[in-house]
């Protein structure tokens, strides 16, 4: 069987804390290394770009299921009274054709959730997250 070289979203599976999460309908992330210019003496142009920090953030769009309790009910986001006890979540996105990891982070915190409840239609929402680090299919092992 030949595999198309273009990754298709329908071929991706989302796992939260190692469990398949079937209600995810869209996943987007941003990994952004930050740099600062270093100037030399009497130099108008920077002589080097120095890495300062690495930010990872993203969003997941999902469908709401009956009696799932939202993110709080599934233990993915703490309610206001449990905020000091909040734990990290592991997010993994896997290509189902090749079994390659497209995205993985073991240190994710969900920071907000939004839900849309139309009178006629499917209840859907989105959740934003930040993470300490991430690995992608392009990241090499060290």
Oligomer category: single chain
As for the number of domains, it is: 1
Q: What is the fold named in CATH at topology level?
A: Pnp Oxidase, Chain A
SSE pattern: EEEEHEEEE
Shape: globular
**Uncertain spans, ≥5 residues at pLDDT below 50?**
none
Largest sheet: 8 strands, antiparallel
Name the CATH class.
Mainly Beta
Query: What is the number of helical segments per DSSP (H or I, 4+ residues)?
Result: 1
Care to count the β-strands? 8
Strand content: over 45%
Radius of gyration: 19 Å
Looking at the overall shape, the CATH architecture is: Roll
Given the helix and strand composition, which structural class is it?
A: mainly beta
What would the average pLDDT be, to the nearest integer? 85
Helix content: under 10%
Termini separation: 31 Å
Could you describe the 3D structure shown?
There is one protein chain. With 142 residues, the protein is mostly beta strands. The chain has one domain: Pnp Oxidase, Chain A. It is built from 1 helix and 8 strands. The protein has one helix at 70-73; strands at 12-16, 19-20, 24-39, 46-63, 89-95, 101-116, 124-131, 135-136. Strands 1, 2, 3, 4, 5, 6, 7 and 8 form an 8-stranded antiparallel β-sheet that branches. A hairpin with a 2-residue loop joins strand 1 and strand 2 (19-20). The longest helix is centred in the middle third of the chain and has 4 residues, at 70-73. The model has no long low-confidence stretch (mean pLDDT 85).
């Amino acid at each position: 069987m030949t595999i198309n070289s273009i990754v298709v979203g329908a071929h991706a599976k989302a796992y939260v804390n190692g469990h398949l999460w079937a209600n995810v309908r869209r996943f987007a992330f941003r990994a952004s290394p930050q740099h600062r210019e270093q100037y030399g003496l009497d130099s108008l142009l920077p002589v080097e770009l120095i890495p300062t920090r690495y930010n990872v953030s993203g969003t997941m769009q999902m469908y709401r299921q009956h009696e799932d309790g939202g993110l709080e009910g599934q233990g993915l986001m703490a309610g206001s009274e449990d905020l000091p006890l909040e734990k990290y979540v592991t997010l993994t996105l896997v290509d189902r054709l090749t079994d390659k990891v497209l995205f993985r982070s073991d240190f994710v915190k969900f920071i907000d959730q939004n839900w849309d409840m139309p009178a006629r239609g499917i209840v859907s929402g989105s959740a934003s997250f930040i993470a300490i680090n991430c690995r992608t299919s392009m990241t090499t092992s060290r």
